[in-house]
Amino acid sequence: MYPLIRLATCSVRSLLSDSINIDDVCETTFRCRPWDIDMFLEVNNGRILTLYDLGRFDFSIRMGLAKVLKQNRWGLVVAGGSVRYRRRVRMFDRVSIHTRIAGIDERWIYVMQSMWVKGQPTSSVLLRTGITSKGKVVPVEDVFKALDIEDWKPELSGWIKEWIHSEENRAWPP
User: Fold this and answer.
1) Nearest to 49 by CA among 131, 130, 135, 111
2) What is the pLDDT of residues 46-93, one digit of tens each?
3) Under DSSP, is residue 173 helix (H, G, I), strand (E, B) or coil?
4) The pTM is what?
5) Contact status, residue 69 vs residue 23, Cβ threshold 8 Å
6) What is the rounded distance in angstroms from the CA atom of residue 124 to the CA atom of residue 106?
């Protein structure tokens, strides 16, 4: 089940927190709860992706994107991703999610997130995300205009460019 209470709590905390700039790293913290774990007493991979959602919501609220989405009746979409799991997250661990924009192109905003416990990375995800309106992706330039952001285009790193290229050559449907 989607953690609606945690979503509400995270949203309220985000609204009460300091705002951040688009090029900042947003840190979202929480404690792993019994309802987050699987039969191996650790957070399963599906729940980790849901928790990463909360980190992106925190980021979007604190940097002002959520307000722009509401004003324009826009939505958020994840159009692809690559995940790495390296360490377990166990019940009652204090978890920190770091969220930042890794780069953009004409259509997509690439978001990097990582999950940390006791100063150690446990997983990371690269996501191709977009803003939607009436079922279509809004050009990034239009999103940035709505956010009053000019001349900001973070360079995509080499491995992200390789991932994009690889995704373009991936057979679809599988």
Assistant:
1) 111
2) 999 999 999 999 999 999 999 999 999 999 999 999 999 999 999 999
3) coil
4) 0.92
5) no
6) 24
